[in-house]
Structure formats: C-alpha cells, structure tokens
Design brief:
Rossmann fold, 21 helices, alpha/beta
C-alpha cells in the first residue's frame, strides 16, 4: 500500500465520507486513492474557493469534516477566503494539499512555494508528512484536530513521493477530545449576574448556542430572569422558525449595534465573544458593549454551549417551558415591481419544512431573514468571516450533507460572481439547491460604506468601481451555461410562480430576481 492509499483509508476509517476536490499533477496518487476508497464520494469544484466553501457548508450541517484536495500552495491560496469564513464559523475541515516531491523542491520549479506559509493564516493546525508511513499518522491527527469542538481547520501537506512510495499502512482513528466545559463557578457567576445584576439584561448567543436544544434552554433562562436573547450578527448555523425559541439579531452597522446594546447593564455571552464593529470608521465606535456594563462570559465558541446553558437554566431553577417561542407569521407581498420585501414575504410563505438557507444576500437579503423568522422550521447559514463569495459553495456543501432537505441559496449578484462555478457543481451532482440571485447591478454595500467612511462627493471613477451595470450581469445565461435551469423575474407575481416551480422540482434551479 502506498502512502496516499494509507492516508485516504485512515481518513475513511475515521469517518470522512466526502472529498471536495480540485487536484493537479502532484495529487494524482491521492486522486487514485480516493477512487479506490469505496464509500468516499468525490465532488469536483472548478475553483478552489468552491471546494473550501463546500467543505464549510458540509461541516456546518454534518458536524464532521469532509476532506478537500488542493493543488500545491497556489491552489490552496485560491481557496483561502472561504477557509477564513470556515475558521470564523468553527467548521470542521481537513485539507489535503499536494506538494512537490521532497527531492524536487530545491529546483524551484514554477509552482514551488511556501505551502506551509500559505496554509497557516487560515488553518488551526498545519503539518507536512515526513515519510510515506508518517502520512497516514498525519491523517489520523488531522481528523482528530478537525473535530475539536465545534470544529477546526486541519491542513496536511502531502509531498508527492510520500504519496506514491509503497510500504505504508493505515492508522487507527485517534480519540476525539471532549469539548471543554464551563465550570460550576462560572455558571454560578452568570446566574447571579442575570438574577441579581443591575438594569436590563441580555443573554448574547453565537456558535452552537444557536442550535435548537441550546435555544430552548436559553428560552427557559429568559423565562426565569426576563433577560432578552440576542444573537451575533452572522451565525454559523441558526435554527429558526415557528415553534423554536426566537432571538433578536444584533445589527450590522457599528453605531446601530451600539445603540441596540446601550440599554443593557448586564450582558452574558455564550458561544461567542463581546461584539465589535466589522470595520473602523472615523469618529465611530469599534467596541460595541456599553461602557460600565457587566460583561460575563458563560462559554466561549470552543466551550460546550449546551452544557453551559443547561447548567445555567438549572442554577436559576428555570421553568420547563421556554419563553419567547416564535409564533407563525405571514406577510403579504406587494404586487407589481419586485422588491427585497416582496421577495422576503414570498420566501417566508413558501419556505419548506426543514429547509436550509445559505444567506449571502447582503443589502437586499435582510428583509428575507426578518420575514422568515416565523416561517416553517429551518436552518439559516451566514457569512461568518465577511469574505464574500461563500453563499453558493456553502449551499453545495449543505446539500451534500443533507440530500433530503431543500437548500435555498440567497445571494447578491456581485458576491455570487466570486464563486459562480459552484453552479456547475450543483448541476453535475444534481444537488437540490434553489439559488435566488438578488440582482441590483451594484456592490450596494460598498456604496453605503463609501459614505460611512466619510468620502464626500465621489467622482465617476470611484462610483464605477462599485457598479455592475456596464455591462450588466445576465444570470440566467450564466446559470444555463453551467447546466442549471434558470428564469428571470421582474415582478412579485413572476417571482412567486418561479419559486413555486423551483421548490416543487428536484435538483438545481436559479431565479434571477431583478431589483
């Protein structure tokens, strides 16, 4: 058995079922090893950012890692933006990155680079194998690291000669470390803060604290203390909908978030840290928590949120039934010209039970998230690291992880161009994804940001860098060229009919919503 075969068999034995791949010459032995590994699905992405983003979506929904297959340092570099998003999300991913044979590197061939240096900024753990026999050991270690709660990015660099050399054998899976748990003393301090602390109180939630069971305990805590429940702005996986405990969302813009939090005298954090502004602005705040407020950490992103919230509910003698249970809601779409609010109303009405929404709707997507709060139960995945071009690949990974659930990709037109190749993968794999492109012909968020940073009277050159209308993007043609049937809508009535058709069908569809 060669090193590549031992490596792949080790990963398969640990539980890896999917390989998202964009390989090159140095990875051919790994390609052959995946081919021989029964039970491991191989999925091709035409750009490395699709590969890494799909692995993120898979990890968020499966709660275990897929493996990516990437070509040397430059290929890994192409996938770094979505690894950044995945790392911020706490998603489990194992990257296997091909490398030149050890004896070839000193020749400085065209694709030679510092692969470890490329990997480190967006990985939690990086390791190069030292031999064909060590390669399998590196795989076992990578899987165990990736499973560190709630998930980590583990990158293994595979020299080609270690992959093709015979004499290796697989390694047994390593034990996965149990998630760290909040101490009894910390739980008691949080209980005292919510019960006896000053003024209005808030339980601020993120990470795994936005899953259904954790939210139920948060609702019990709210029932016991009267505290408000607030979620971080961009969630890894927020389980929402009628019958689940509802939370308020912290606004995106820093001054709005600061105003939202201003009344709280006590804030307890679980699954996340105190919020900060996405960017610095002249004369505007970076730190968003109120001055003088008591800030109490119940659990970080990497501490067991379920244990912390269950313990806190118990310490407060919270009632069995939660407060703040979301009731069903219905919005009427305004007929005529399509708008973000009519899209939100129609999506909320039609959203299937147990759907998954991959949201990179940017300025036009906020209404949909707000209006879908009282729709049927669903999962909402967001842009955790702020690096645009995540939404379509994330939908690919979610659909692979959950083939029996309908996935909706809600995406702005500009951001979707970063990874539009994901549509081809949806078509190739016949993934059940309905993509909604919110086409306003602009990087609209950047037009807003231009004003917020204080630029006065921007000229035509500045505005041209934020405009997508010269030429306009034809998403129906882009989609059909990638093998995904598409339709263009300009009115609410057209969108309503198109969404009904797409959700009734099995397989990928795209709706271009003209705004």
């Amino acid at each position: 058995m060669n090193g590549a075969e031992a490596f792949i068999e080790t990963l398969a034995a640990a539980g890896v079922e999917v390989c998202f791949a964009n390989p090159g010459t140095s990875e051919m032995q790994l390609v052959a090893a995946v081919d021989r590994q029964h039970g491991m699905r191989a999925i091709l992405g035409l750009f490395e950012g699709v590969v890494t983003g799909a692995a993120d979506g898979y990890g968020r929904m499966a709660d275990k890692p897929a493996v990516t297959l990437l070509h040397l340092g430059p290929g890994l570099g192409n996938g770094l933006a979505n690894l950044h998003n995945a790392r911020k999300a706490g998603s489990p991913i194992v990257n296997m990155v091909g490398e030149h044979a050890t004896y070839h590197k000193h020749f400085n061939a065209p694709l030679t680079s510092d692969t470890e240096g490329v990997a480190r900024p967006m990985s939690d753990w990086v390791r190069s194998s030292t031999s064909e026999r060590d390669l399998a050991q590196a795989g076992a270690e990578a899987f165990a690291v990736a499973q560190h709660y709630p998930g980590k990015i583990a990158t293994v660099i595979v020299p080609a000669n270690h992959a093709w050399t015979e004499g290796s054998s697989p390694v047994a899976p390593l034990a996965v470390i149990a998630p760290p748990r909040t101490t009894d003393e910390t739980i008691a301090a949080a209980a005292a803060a919510l019960k006896d602390g000053e003024g209005p109180k808030c339980l601020f939630l993120g990470g795994r604290a936005l899953r259904e069971d954790a939210l139920r305990d948060a609702g019990r805590i709210a029932a016991a203390t009267g505290c408000r429940l607030v979620a971080e702005t961009f969630a890894t996986r927020h389980q929402r909908g009628a019958g689940r405990v509802a939370v308020e969302k912290l606004p995106y813009f820093g001054e709005q978030a600061q105003a939202f939090l201003a009344e709280f005298k006590t804030i307890v954090f679980c699954g996340t840290e105190p919020p900060v502004s996405f960017f610095a602005y002249p004369g505007k705040p970076s730190w968003l928590s109120p001055d003088g407020a008591a800030l109490v950490r119940l659990a970080s992103l990497r501490e067991d949120a379920d244990h912390a919230l269950t313990g806190l509910a118990s310490a407060l003698n919270a009632p069995a039934e939660p407060a703040l249970v979301q009731q069903p809601t219905k919005f009427d779409a305004t007929p005529g010209k399509l708008s973000s609010s009519s899209i939100g109303a129609i999506l909320a009405e039609q959203l299937p039970e147990n759907a998954i929404v991959s949201d990179e709707g940017a300025t036009q997507g906020g209404a949909s998230m707000l209006m879908c709060a009282g729709a049927k139960k669903h999962d909402w995945l967001q842009l955790t690291g702020g690096a645009i071009g995540q939404g379509l690949p994330l939908a690919v990974g979610a659909a692979v992880a959950c083939p029996d659930r309908k996935v909706i990709a809600l995406h702005g037109d500009g951001g979707a161009m970063y990874t539009c190749q994901a549509l081809w993968t949806m078509a190739r794999e016949q993934l059940d994804v309905t993509t909604i492109i919110l086409n306003n012909g602009s990087y609209a968020i950047l037009n807003i940001e231009l004003m917020r940073v204080g630029v006065q009277n921007p000229g035509p050159k500045a505005l041209s860098m934020l405009d997508l209308k010269n030429p306009g993007l034809g998403w129906t043609k882009i989609s059909e060229g990638m093998g995904v049937p598409a339709v263009r809508c300009e009115t609410a009535e057209e969108f309503d009919a198109a969404l009904k058709d797409a959700l009734a069908a099995k397989g990928p569809r795209l709706i271009e919503a003209m705004l």
